[in-house]
Amino acid sequence: MSTASTNAGARRGMKIDLHVLGPILALVALIGIGIALNSNFLSYGNITNVLARSAFIGIIAVGMTFVITAGGLDLSVGSMAAFIAGLMILCMNLLVPSMGQSLGVILIGIAVALAAGLVAGAINGLLVTRAGIEAFIVTLGTMGIYRSLVTWLADGGTLSLDYGMRELYRPVYYDGILGVSWPIIVFAIVAILGEIVMRHTAFGRHCAAIGSNETVARYSTVAVTRVKTLTYILLGCLVGVAVVMYVPRLGSASASTGLLWELEAIAAVIIGGTVLKGGFGRVWGTVVGVLILSLIGNILNLTDMVSPYLNGAIQGVIIILAVVLQRKGSTAT
Amino acid sequence: MTRLTLTTTLAGSLLCSVALPAAAETIGVSIPAATHGWAGALNFHAEQTVERLEEQYEDLDFVLTTTPDPGTQISDLEDMVATRNIDALVVLPFESEPLTGPIQRIAESGTWVTVVDRGLSQENIEDLYVAGDNESFGRTAGDYFVETLDEGSKVVVLRGIPTSIDNERVEAFQAALDGSGIEILAMEHGNWSRDDAFTVMQDFLSRYPEIDAVWAADDDMAVGAIGAIEQAGRQDEMWVVGGAGMKEMVQRVQDGDSMVPVDVTYPPAMIATAIELTAMGLMSDGVPMSGDFIIASELITQDNADQYYFEDSPY
Amino acid sequence: MTAPTLALHDVSKSFGPIEVLHGVDFDLRPGEVHALIGENGAGKSTMMKILGGYLSPTGGEVRLDGQRAAFSDSAEAEAAGVIMIHQEFNLADHLSVEQNVFLGREIRRGIFLDHKTMQAKSRDLMEALEARVPPRTRVSDISVPEKQMVEIAKALSRNVRVLIMDEPTAVLTGAEARVLFKQVRRLRDEGAAILFTSHKLDEVSEIADRVTVLRDGAVVAQGGIDEFTEDAMATAMVGRDVSDLFPAKRAGGDEIILEAAHVDVPGHVTGASLSLRKGEILGIGGLVGAGRTELMEGLVGLRPRTGTVTLKGTSLPGGDVACARRRGFVYLTEDRKGAGLLLDKSLTENLTLPVLHRYARPLIDRKAEAAALDKAITDFDIRVPSRDVKVGNLSGGNQQKLLLAKTMLCDPDVVVIDEPTRGIDIGTKQQIYTLIHRLAEEGRSIIVISSEMPELIGLCNRVYVMHGGHVAGELTGSEVTEDNVIRLATGLGSQREDAA
Predict the structure, then answer these.
(1) What is the ipTM of this complex?
(2) Could you report the per-residue pLDDT of C411-457, keeping only the tens digit for each?
(3) Intrachain domains B5-126 and B134-264 with the same fold
(4) Nearest to A254 among B36, B159, B207 (CB)
(5) A14: which chain C residues are within 8 Å (Cβ-Cβ)?
(6) Fewest 10 Å CB contacts: which of A250, C47, C60, C442?
(7) Do A5 and C393 touch (CB under 8 A)?
(8) Which domains does chain C have, with CATH numbers?
(9) Name one GO cellular component term (chain B) (predicted).
(10) Does residue B232 sit at the A interface (CB-CB below 8 Å)?
């Protein structure tokens, strides 16, 4: 047995490379296609657009990486984002008459968004860990609840931020430092911190251990309940952060805000090499996954080669291909 | 999931209507859920009308359901017939094909059927057809482009969710532009969503150094497109025409915003028209009410904008 | 002498560049029980898998009835009547006993399944194995020995010519093993050829007709059972003398370090009291299902419990396994693969998992972790081809040593070791016993739960025996004999009943 494993180890060494390189190769290939199809692809404006629009899903997907690595799942993030955005706009609009169009209102709005994210994440987490309900069911339920709540808050229409406030808050999405816009900066910070936490802290290691085998983690005196709950809270907070960056973009929230974000985030996580059933996660892979998804849309918009009716099909094919490439590298061992 | 069955009758009216089989008439109203702005306004107008008519006519009951998909809508209709014994149905079909059969069966059972906006795939099923005019919607916008833009101008188009409605609008728009010398650079689906339209418009702006005007085919998409144009700092180069008559956009037209010179109506209040006409047909015997009632799209300009601004509407 | 049913002729097997079987000659004759013994890693599993059609040999050939047989997969082998029972169960947890027994070979009447016949047949089979499990019970709801019996029933339900059993008794108690042997003898008398492996040499003496000893991928000894004493088998397996399996027994000090009073673990244990002295190796005996594991899991906080537990003079709260660990009380599970180790993770990640906080300040110090692994590898003699290998690829013995190293990294004062040598070869066993002694000499106190009589008797100076969720009695010094333990374990002469 032990002699046989030497051999397996050696073989795996080579395949890990493929496993690691898979998503990066896909990203490079997409960038190559983009350059070939449109000379504006590499322009400052386009790159900024793609990165900034990736930020919302990206920030959420970083949190999703932890949840999935620990063996969980959260389907509610898209609706949660819409609900938090609605709540934030409503609070800010309510404060304008008393506080005027001031920085204070924005700060309170941000605090509301982050707090709401924390609470929403905690609700998901506690229902999963304390009540012992399947994550899929819990978050399917909260997904419907948040989506309805935002529709209700908006009376079926659109919640729009006070016009003056919008002008004041706008720079948070559109401005930046040294030509790098804020969403990109925040996304980068979240991604880097996420990568460090996942790879270099006890929390990240505990997530992987729980996802790999929850019983072993429990017998190894890992605080399973606490760690799992924390992954959902972390994700909720990151949804709050994403909303803080989203609201200044168009200053509105409606029932269609954040539609299907959960699926995009989950797809990005899986494309990035995190295992859907948990036990192994990598944040940098998730970032690559998010960029791949954004680039597909961007490239399709930049050309007329493919009928726009087929956009979804192309995304689907690329998602499946990316995952198949990686599985090829890992199943053989 | 978002299906909420709103029985707008007073509490216990179900019991009453069973106990007192008097002349009480019931109208079923089935419309799509408020998943985007226009549908939200549709819900708003439907609820308002139902409330008003219930006060007006003592003998009239309403069953209002909102549905997230065609399948649920079919179940809703079956429930209405089976449990509420409706006398008339006002329905905005989620999709034409799958709902044609179920609605036909209801019509054949002798129930009055009013179809709103989305026509069924077979003719002469409904007693009354109330609809906006999608062709007129596209043509009105197109005519404005032809009138305002010079030959050789370049425009981009943000389309809605791929449906027959979207096709009718876009074909009419293209027909209006035919022969005018205005070039349509590209058309992409913005799915009647602000966020999608923002993204698509960003990419159009990267792709085309010269754009003179944008037809966004819906006011929600227009808001997204304007966001992207402002980000690129190109608001002096082009203007945007949306459609549907969203409050925020009407306001901008009224204020003389150079980016939003006009808007085109496609009134969600048509549901009110449909419910009113149905109620009237049901309550006033002998008043002829069958036929088609087509509400044309009109151009909102700075001069007439005040007529299209509804303070209370969420849309 | 009858002609062999299944034989290996000069068989070798390589994985990549490494040859793990070197020119093995081996035969299985009808009407014999042939024991294959050897240390973990000697190549037993590989050899059995070749016989069972799961692997094909790199050199040499497999012969069935004297004809060259190239099974392309296990299904072909099974069709030829060659059936293998794996050490890891091959059962669908969510299906019933009956469904498992007939999985893939369902009896039909027309297009419908014939449930009645299948149920009756599986009930008969299970009864023959003295496992009274209703055929409709889901496999996930039955005990580990019962699962083993289902596996065996599955094999018995077919037309068996050759039955290959990989350590069938590892999870069985002595009594259960005896029932199994009765069935094995029945099959043998019907003319089947049976190959079986076990680390329990007394069982080999009891059941086998012939023995083949494998060491480092080659046959080192072969012959009739009467040619081998147990010591001779052990010596042939290990290549050195292992007659001194157990170091000298030691009694603990006077200081009581852990005391449990009137502990209930709902559903498993009622009114258990026990005490542990400093530096003592205390044994817990009893049958599988007597509540031994559950009691210890309750004490350490892995299960809810009531009653009082006093650790080093202060009371220990229930249900908080992390607190117990901080205060120096840890439990090493019997379920190495299900609860002990993360099989898809590296050695390091497994080793430091319980005390990761020590290495994270707040970022994990990988150098310190690597040093800890180096030390563990030396201290516990863990043999690994490389540091990055996944734990699932290690042999059972090395996994058990890693699990010990992981537990000892918590620097505990009190360690519960549940079945310390289950499924482990005799050489490693000796090492583990020596290790346990060393720990006791360092002043740590150890509780050993074991179903293996020699282990309890050889290691422990004092033994509590459990029966049906109660502590049935306590044996000290010369009272610790196989007879006394069995008497208490089976509910005869319980002290508790005497007291009542």
Answers:
(1) 0.82
(2) 999 999 999 888 787 788 888 898 899 899 988 999 999 988 888 88
(3) yes
(4) B36
(5) none
(6) C442
(7) yes
(8) 6-238 (3.40.50.300), 244-328+412-500 (3.40.50.300), 341-407 (no CATH)
(9) cell envelope
(10) yes
